[in-house]
Design goal:
heterodimer; A: 1007 residues; alpha+beta; FAD/NAD(P)-binding domain; 7 domains; seven-stranded mixed beta sheet; 51 strands; B: 198 residues; Gyrase A, domain 2; Alpha-Beta Plaits; 2 domains; five-stranded antiparallel beta sheet; 4 helices; 35% strand; globular
Chain lengths: 1007, 198
């Protein structure tokens, strides 16, 4: 027998001639091509694969698909490529795969954490809400925050995430289609074919490696004369023939969002033994579909009884899949039990390959089904009206205890049956997760005892088992009908309906079966409802007893149906148990929301290419390349990369900034100011518009002149500032702060469109159009004069705060005479395409004049020496112009401007508002911390409000000392007084001075 | 003094060559140089503006979501009463002057030649490359030559326009973000293979 003692000789879709080696917890094992990790482990007789979340109970493989609650493993490729919490049922086997079990120490068979199972009385539902709060002699919450919570956090979780960076690549893309089909089982394939044949663009996504769903584990019957198991391949071949169809295997539709947008996670390389290192590992699809066909099938329910979680206990449908698809038997001696006809199909198929069927137990008293009749004909030992009450076995089930329900509700002992596996079916629960996520309203089908899609909220159709269809013929029929409906909803004709003739299937009499009454445990035994979260029947009863009534509360109190499992196997059993305990109906208890993602999605998939340099767009000026060539250090300013300082040989940042500042003050410096926001305001009413937006008067501003503008919000607080130049009667060149460009433009557009639609004004962002080269320093005019053609740059023709159009270095330019340093200054605006060449021409002359390029840090120091504010540094959204000493800028005779009314509120005219002042440290020179508080005494009593805070602090090489700007309560009235600035190493005594530290008379502005 | 030749911020980042995966159908990337001006129609001047543009450029200002081309000029709708006018020739071409002369006070004109970069993406896999960052459905049933859209692509505000059925697309992005945008395009096109052409 190949690759495992529990492998059948023939049958299934695996390749017995292609052996794959793998290890589980270091032990070498073999499987076949086509196996999942789960089927390969089972083929080797391995049922024990993990330890449970809370009690560390030994757990085995329960299902064969993505609903697996127990068999979570870690798959290791290398350090960074380690993925925890993968379902072994979804991990495709490849040669060399390394898997390890989780949540156990020191080993899977001997796990010290299993002590929790014995101490379980200490950990009932919600234990962390009611224990560990004392003892009372300790400070409140001390024990919880210092001891218990850290201990619980350490114990929580299953697998461990790797700590090294993820070396894999991830891709993402948007896609559009007419019809998205979620699930490629019989219903999904029929829907896809029908929609494609009607002319629709179709995307079919299925979470498994091979499409076909339940068709792939069919053992009998035929569709239109073709054996059932072969039908999927035929349908896929036909779909592949349509150019409009995209088939996405290994792709989970993990979320259904608004406007028919679905999130799909495609696993591209996890199954590949040697993936392309350049290729993506996973791909996120964001699909906008005009109609969605949900064909997600149904999930089998476990039975709830004492110790129903032993390895070797699995779902009957899963056993059928392992047998018929993977050629694996679950054991040698099987008991098959439940309340659904699926148990007979499983019993017949297992008996057919020689597995001893010890008993088939039907909880129903008188099932009356064709499936049972077939099993009786085969001579299988069937017992009706019999339930399971418990199991025994160490690390694997070895025996089950059975009972007979009596009329009074009690259960009579009906003996024990030795076995090495128990296959159970409590019926099937339609997978309504995606429908629920689409915000559709579910309805409770009392006859079937399950929730089914009710009222749709978006353009979608549920087809097949997830829509409540019963039997393969009906499933296919509903799929085909859904496909045609979907195509029609997208505007295509109905097309010809295909005929499907299904024969020889062992159909169940009821699709979903009924939820079994749980067989509640005696004594200390546990009956699990939610395997993944270790929630027992007793936990749910406790919650009900303690007064919880809504399933929403019970879910959070007990954790049932939470986390990555989202109650796939447990939901209906939990609802039945709670409604039974509360003596009410399932709809009265309610249903929790199914959350995305359906199965976990890696962070890498969601991040896609947005990492490293592509995490956020990076903006660069046209002079960026020059600065890089000069070895500039850069800083991030918003999304811009700005030259921070230009270090020369052996210079550190402090030395470079000090030199740049001294050079500007003594000679001249050149600075890249291209990032300044620029807005062209054009139209006959442009001056009127700016007059209303800004505090300053603009109507009187003459063409060719500039004005410093302050922009307030409606509350009167400063939100932006900048120089505004009038180029012509109807044209202004407005500059904003680097960070404020977009929001100022939006605010202007907002006012223009909603408040003053009568104004004839148009706005264009020209931030990108103009490169801005600032030349500042006493020799600035000498530097630029020879480069300027067509304008007089002399002090009389071009005074401070004026603008002219001229050619600079041969390029048409807007030449501003402005200063943000307090020195004689010009800002040359040239089209970005010429930015670099004009910069180089200017920089060469600056160099010849003994000057240098300077960066943003020197710019900050120079402006702070002059007490010039930076919005966002000296302001924090609560500062008005008067606080900054800028009250002079407000046009006193103006009728109105944004924020004007707010400036006369009582709070705004108080004389003890925080005001901008300068601070100099006394005694030794100390660089104050930005943001440090300013207090009246060195060690104020606890609870004393600060007088204000330091807004900017720099070392000034020109002044030979540190300087700081601060907002201080009533600051302008405190000139010369001593205050204190508490710092980590003790309070520093400071003197309040004018915020203008350098050239207070402003004589340097004229060179 | 000689006038320096304007240079694109992209030239250093779009050196011609063949990159990424091998294959016979690489995606083609290139920078297009055009004079660009933004034209904003003044209130109540729609008919005058349309007549002026038609008279001077032979262009009928297009409807939302579309563009028109005539000889060397093209007009593209980008916002209500707002169009981009593009014209072949060197970027220093004074398109703005011609437009201002033609429109008078029917429109406000602002030069955007250097505020925008134009990148052409073409080839059989062009749609697949763009789908990695563009939410617009570019399928021939929905989009097509002459259609345009204003949409974020890879977090960058872009104007997208289909040039022909190759398919070829022109993407107009803010010039200071163009280099970042090209980096994203190159990474996106690598799996299909791409060629940067002059």
């Amino acid at each position: 027998m190949s690759a495992g003692a529990f492998r059948t000789a023939t049958g299934g879709r695996i390749d017995r001639t292609h052996t794959l080696r793998f290890t589980f917890d270091g032990r070498p094992l073999q499987g076949c091509a086509g196996d999942t990790l789960a089927s390969a482990l089972l083929a080797n007789g391995r049922h024990l694969v993990g330890r449970s979340f809370k009690y560390h109970r030994p757990r085995g493989i329960v299902t064969s698909g993505s609903e697996e609650p127990n068999a979570l493993v870690t798959v290791v490729r290398d350090g960074g490529r380690t993925t925890p919490n993968l379902r072994a049922t979804q991990v495709e086997l490849y040669d060399g795969l390394t898997a390890i079990s989780q949540n156990r120490w020191p080993s899977l068979t001997r796990d010290l954490g299993a002590i929790n199972d014995k101490l379980s009385l200490m950990f009932p539902a919600g234990f962390y809400y009611k224990t560990f709060m004392g003892p009372r002699f300790l400070p409140e919450n001390w024990a919880w925050t210092k001891v218990f919570e850290p201990a619980i956090r350490r114990a929580a979780g299953l697998g461990r995430a790797p700590t090294s960076a993820d070396p894999d690549r991830y891709a993402s893309r948007y896609a559009h289609c007419d019809v998205l089909v979620a699930g490629a089982g019989p219903a999904g394939l029929a829907a896809a074919l029908a929609a494609a044949e009607a002319g629709a663009r179709v995307i079919v996504a299925d979470e498994q490696s091979e499409m076909g769903g339940s068709l792939l584990s069919a053992s009998r019957g035929a569709i239109n004369g073709v054996p059932t198991a072969q039908c999927a391949a035929d349908a896929l071949a036909q779909l592949a023939g349509h150019a409009r169809v995209r088939l996405l295997p290994r792709t989970t539709v993990f979320g259904y969002f608004a406007q028919n947008m679905a999130g799909l996670a495609e696993r591209i390389s996890d199954h590949d033994p040697s993936p392309d290192p350049e290729g993506p590992r996973e791909r996120l699809w964001q699909v906008r579909a005009r109609h969605v066909v949900i064909a997600t099938g149904a999930i089998e329910r476990p039975l709830v009884f004492s110790n129903n979680d032993r390895p070797g206990i699995m779902l009957a449908g899963a056993a059928l899949t392992y047998l018929n698809r993977y050629g694996v038997t679950p054991g040698q001696r099987a008991v098959i039990a439940g309340s659904h006809d699926g148990i007979y199909a499983a019993a017949l198929d297992l008996a057919g390959v020689g597995v001893e069927v010890a008993a088939v137990l039907d909880t129903r008293a008188d099932p009356q089904s064709a499936a049972m009749a077939a099993a009786l004909d085969a001579g299988l030992p069937i017992r009706t009206g019999t339930c399971i009450v418990g199991s025994r076995g160490h690390l694997r089930v070895s025996e089950i205890m059975i009972g007979a329900p009596m009329a009074d509700g009690s259960i009579r002992d009906a003996g024990r049956i030795p076995c090495d596996c128990l296959l159970m079916s409590g019926g099937w629960t339609p997978s309504v997760h995606l429908f629920s996520q689409s915000r559709g309203k579910l309805r409770f089908d009392a006859a079937a005892g399950v929730f089914l899609p009710g009222v749709s909220a978006q353009s979608e159709t549920s087809a097949g088992a997830c829509g409540g269809a019963s039997g393969l013929a009906a499933v296919i029929e509903s799929g085909a009908a859904a496909g045609r409906t979907a195509a029609q909803a997208c505007g295509f004709g109905l097309g010809r309906a295909r005929a499907y003739r299904v024969e020889g299937i062992l159909e169940a009499t009821e699709a979903t079966g009924h939820v079994n009454a749980p067989r509640l445990p005696q004594g200390m035994a546990k009956a699990f409802v939610d395997f993944q979260n270790d929630v027992t029947s007793r936990d749910l009863e406790l919650a009900a007893r303690e007064g919880f009534r809504s399933i929403e509360h019970i879910k959070r109190y007990t954790t049932t149906g939470m986390a990555t499992d989202q109650g796939k196997t447990s939901n209906m059993n939990a609802l039945a148990l709670v409604s039974g305990t509360l003596n009410t109906t399932v709809p009265d208890v309610g249903l929790t929301t199914f959350r995305q993602p359906y199965t976990p999605v890696t962070f890498g998939t969601l991040a896609g290419m947005a990492r490293g340099d592509l995490f956020d767009p990076i903006r660069r000026t046209s002079i960026d390349g020059w600065a890089q060539g000069k070895g500039a250090a850069f800083e991030d300013v918003g999304t811009w990369k700005r030259a921070w300082y230009f270090p020369r040989a052996k210079e550190d940042m402090h030395a470079a900034v000090a030199r740049e500042c001294r050079t500007v003050r003594a000679a001249v410096g050149v600075f890249d100011a291209s990032t300044l926001g620029k807005i062209e305001v054009v139209g006959p009413d442009a001056a009127e518009f700016l007059e209303r937006m800004y505090v300053n008067a603009f109507k009187a501003l003459k063409p060719g002149r500039c004005r410093y503008g302050i922009l307030l919000n409606e509350a009167g607080f400063v939100i932006d500032d900048g120089v505004i130049a009038r180029l012509a009667q109807d044209r202004f060149h407005v500059t904003t702060t680097t960070g404020g460009a977009a929001s100022v433009l939006n605010m202007m557009e907002d006012y223009l469109q909603t408040e003053w639609p009568d104004l004839q004004v148009w706005l264009t962002s020209t931030t990108e159009q103009w490169a801005v080269i600032a030349v500042q320093g006493p020799r600035a005019r000498d530097v630029i004069a020879p480069l300027v053609d067509g304008a007089d740059v002399g002090g009389e023709a071009l005074p401070h705060m004026s603008v002219c159009e001229a050619k600079v270095a041969g390029v048409p330019a807007r030449l501003f005479r402005v200063s943000f340093t307090g020195e004689l200054g010009f800002e040359i605006n040239v089209p970005v395409g010429a930015g670099r060449s004009v910069w180089e021409a200017v920089a060469a002359r600056v160099e010849d004049a003994g000057g240098c390029a300077y960066g943003t840090e020197a710019m900050h120091v120079l402006r702070a020496e002059k007490g010039y504010i930076i919005v966002g540094q000296e302001t924090d959204g609560t500062v008005i112009p008067e606080d900054l000493g800028l009250g002079w800028a407000i046009g006193k005779s103006k009728a109105d401007f944004v924020g004007r009314r707010s400036l006369v509120r009582p709070d705004m005219i108080r004389t003890d508002r925080k005001q901008l002042v300068g601070l100099l440290t006394r005694g030794r020179d100390v660089l104050l911390d930005d943001g440090a508080q300013v207090t009246s005494v060195a060690a104020p009593a606890k609870g004393t409000a600060a007088l204000g805070h330091v807004t900017s602090s720099y070392h000034s090489s020109v002044l030979g000392k540190s300087i700081a700007l601060a907002l201080v309560r009533g600051g302008r009235g405190l000139m010369g007084q001593r205050l204190h600035v508490p710092m980590p190493k003790g309070a520093v005594e400071v003197e309040v001075v004018s915020p203008v530290f350098y050239d207070p008379k402003g004589e340097k502005l004229n060179g | 003094m000689s006038v320096p030749e304007p240079i694109s911020q992209l030239s250093a980042h779009m050196q011609p060559g063949r990159f990424g995966a091998d294959g016979n159908t690489p995606v083609l990337l290139s920078e297009r140089r055009r004079a660009i001006a933004q034209v904003m129609g003044r209130k109540g001047q729609d008919a005058r503006l349309r007549a002026a543009i038609h008279g001077a450029f032979g262009l009928d200002l297009p409807h939302p979501g579309s563009s028109v081309t005539r000889d060397s000029a093209m007009a593209m709708w980008i916002a209500p009463e707002t169009w981009l006018i593009l014209r072949d020739g060197s970027p220093s071409d004074d398109l703005t002057r011609d437009l201002t002369a033609a429109c008078g006070d029917a429109a406000s004109i602002v030069d955007q030649t250097w505020g925008k970069s134009i990148i052409r993406v073409s080839g059989a896999r062009a749609c697949a490359v763009l789908a990695k960052g563009c939410r617009i459905d570019l399928h021939p049933r929905v989009f097509g030559p002459g259609k345009s859209a204003v949409t974020p692509i890879a977090h960058i505000h872009a104007v997208l326009m289909q040039v022909d059925a190759t398919p070829a697309f022109d993407l107009i992005v803010p010039s200071t973000l163009a280099r970042d945008f090209v980096e994203w395009l190159r990474l996106s096109a690598a799996e299909y293979g791409y060629e940067v052409v002059a």
